[in-house]
Amino acid sequence: MAILLVLVTAALVVVNGFAFWGDTFALWVDDGMQLSAGLAGVVCGILVARRVREHQRWWRVLVALGMTGWSLGQCVWSWYQLIDGRGLPSPSLADVGYLSFPVFALAALFVLARARARPDRERWQPAQWTAHFGVAVVLDGLVVTGSLFILTWTAALGQVVRATGPDALTWAVAIAYPLSDLVVVVVAVLLVVFDRVDRPYRANLMLAAVGIVALACSDSVFAYLVSIGAESMKPWSDAGFVLGPLFIAFALLVTPGTRRRDDAGQPVGVDWWQVALPYLPVTAVALLITVQIVAGAGPDGVEVFVGALVVFLVLARQLLSLLDNRLLLRRVYEGQQQLTHQAYHDPLTGLANRALFADRLDRAVEQGTDGGHGPLVLIFVDLDDFKEVNDRFGHAGGDVLLHAVAQRLLSCVRTGDTVARLGGDEFAILLEGEVDAPQAVADRIQSALRRPFAVHGTLVPVRASMGLVVPDPAEPAITADVLLGRADTSMYAGKRLGKDTTVVYHPSPDGPPDFPSALRRAGGGLPEGFALVFQPIVRLADEQPVAVEALARWTARDGTAVSPETFVRAAEGAGLGAELDALVLDLACREITTAGIDLTVHVNVCASRLGAASLEQSVESALDRYGLPAERLIVEITETVPVPDLAAGAAAIRRLQDLGVRVALDDFGAGYSSLTVLHALPVDLIKLDRALTTGVRPDRDAALCRSLVGLCADLEVAVVAEGIETAEQAELVTRAGCTTAQGYRFGHPAGLASLRLSTLSAG
User: Does the keyword Transport apply (predicted)?
Assistant: First the structure.
């Protein structure tokens, strides 16, 4: 409907310009159309302003006031032209009304610009992505202003300045039209080009800008005709005075709809016409100067000076565009690098993800096969019982722990090694090049993970099962998938062995190490690969052995030496703890008797079996079978789990003591051992945990040892200090009152034959 009205109005202007019914009638129709369009703008502004609020109201009120002044000026103009017959009266009261419009229009444009309420997340135009945006705005504004100034100067302003007006007031009024129009047009163009109006108001701005430009064109024609002393202004020249107010009326009628919440998230295309708009006036200037040169009326000095300035500004703007493009390319490159990093790294821990790890492992295997690279080691790490952390602290706490674990793993390897998170609580480590003692690296990782982690203000212990693979260079057709499968298999073998251990992969037809199966296959006999070693317990005064502790060792068929805590935990988990304790007790009594060494033997028994009839039967049976005096056997209660019933435990200890066997409390000061347990259980001996004798504060350690030794002396309980490795530690426990000790300083665990030789040589 609006387009049809514009077309009909434009057609009437064209037809009326031919003055088929005479010039007087054409002037009456022309002035009537101008006044009607101006009044339409006033009415539309008032009606819509009553229905809207805030910025939408005030810019319409200002435009309506401007159009009111313009319409009053048109009434006066029509009186002079049609009734009074003055031709083109200037200056006159009509000029007051006409020139009031640019003032109110400029204020309305600024109010419209302040209506901008764009969310921060909405995309900006390309020029706004760079640090040069402010300079670009200034340069584009100067280019537009300079170009329009040249056009205005050529069309009317130059003629006005050069003309000799009848007086200063006439000259000032004549030049006020093009200058005021230039200011308003430049502001409207800048608002359009630089997107300074919120998107719902874009239609209002565009229609208003078209109307302002139309008025400016007719104003320029009017100023030119006044400057040359013309007596009349043809209807065709007044087309801008008819169509301009009409477009302004349409601008006042358009009301933006409610903006959807997801508008900001929709893709915003580049408005290329907005990018090109600053250069349209430059193109017009170039065409104008070309026409002037061809016509032989070359540009004057003002046009040349301002034109050269515009050319310089355009060159500066292009240089700035090159800098902008360079910055954009850099940001695109950085964005690609970031996307690449995200594609190949775990977002939680920052470690390599499964894809990157597989790629590096493939490359390492290929280079190793081609002989272009050194050996490699693959370690598969899985956190034990990680689900309990998630259940206790939630997934947020689990994420904190996983990130901390990743940092610990990184600290255990070299810079060039790869640590990856494969998913969940699974990690993988690739060591390339010369790797000294891969088992030492695994031990370092185990030790690092055993230090408690802080999760939401709580210290959380972490254990991990690990599978370690060292590929054989001579093995043909080895692949990365095969290595990962072996590492995964070894890791799960560690899980079955009792967790918190490292299993080194060895090719074996029997599968991964499985101690419970080996124990069952033995049928009460000695499992394959199972043996005892003994560590001496010495008298501190002369460091002579007074006892030995029997320690279990197991080597699987594939040659894997499984740690005692691993296979013992596996046996306990399989319900074979009692069979293992009976096996160790029987084997220790047999070997100490066969060796003919007159020393007391210590044998470990889990606290959960204290009070079980099978334990007492096993002790009595072993003593009778090998003829070992009961006083030479000490049963050590190992509290890997708490004593289930202290009263029943105390009764069981007394029954063992009735047999002549002494009972010791192992690792006192660690685990579940406490003064309450010492008070409740009538033990004959305690073994101080190494943490009480090898700490970092010797003075406090000595004071604590003295207190415990003194307490045990009052209770008539003997004390053995464990974990003594240095002369300083031996001196510390001696000064604390200990008389016996155990540790690497006095001997490593070994077979009884080796222990017997060292004992004889010492004697």
Answer: no
State in Å, rounded, how far the first CA of the chain is from the last one.
121
Question: Kind and range of the H or E element at 538?
Answer: strand 530-539
Mention every residue, 6+ apart, whose C-beta is less than 8 A from residue 327. Answer: 129, 130, 131, 132
Nearest residue to 204 (alpha-carbon basis) of 274, 251, 255: 251
CATH 3.20.20.450 spans which residues of the chain?
513-752
Please state, in angstroms and rounded to a whole number, the distance separating the CA atoms of residues 731 and 693. 10
| pLDDT at site 263 | 46
Q: What is the pLDDT of residues 340-385, one digit of tens each?
A: 888 889 989 999 998 899 889 888 888 765 554 457 889 999 998 8
Contact status, residue 163 vs residue 330, Cβ threshold 8 Å: no
Residues 342-346: contacts with CB under 8 Å, at least 24 apart = 346/420, 346/421
Looking at the chain, the domain(s) classified CATH 3.30.70.270 span 352-502
Host H or E run for residue 594: helix 577-595
Amino acid (one-letter) located at 509: P
DSSP string, 83-139: II--SS--SSHHHHHHHHHHHHHHHHHHHHHHT----TTSPPPGGGGSTTHHHHHHH
Q: Taking the model in full, what pTM does it have?
A: 0.44
Residue 141's nearest CA partner among 194, 204, 214 is 194
Residue 14, H or E segment = helix 2-17
Q: Does position 585 have pLDDT exceeding 90, yes or no?
A: yes
Question: Structurally, what CATH architecture does the domain formed by 352-502 represent?
Answer: 2-Layer Sandwich (3.30)
Cα–Cα distance for residue pair 83/75, rounded to 1 Å: 11
> What is the token pair recorded at 487?
């590492």
Tokens encoding 528: 């394959």
What is the rounded distance in angstroms from the CA atom of residue 17 to the CA atom of residue 8?
Answer: 14
What is the fold, at CATH topology level, of the domain defined by 513-752? Answer: TIM Barrel (3.20.20)
Q: Which residue has the tokens 């609006």?
A: 2
How many beta carbons lie within 10 A of that of residue 75, not counting itself? 15
For 330, the 3-state DSSP assignment is: helix
Question: Which phi and psi angles does 485 have, rounded to 5°?
Answer: -65, -40
Residues 6+ apart with CB under 8 A from 50: none
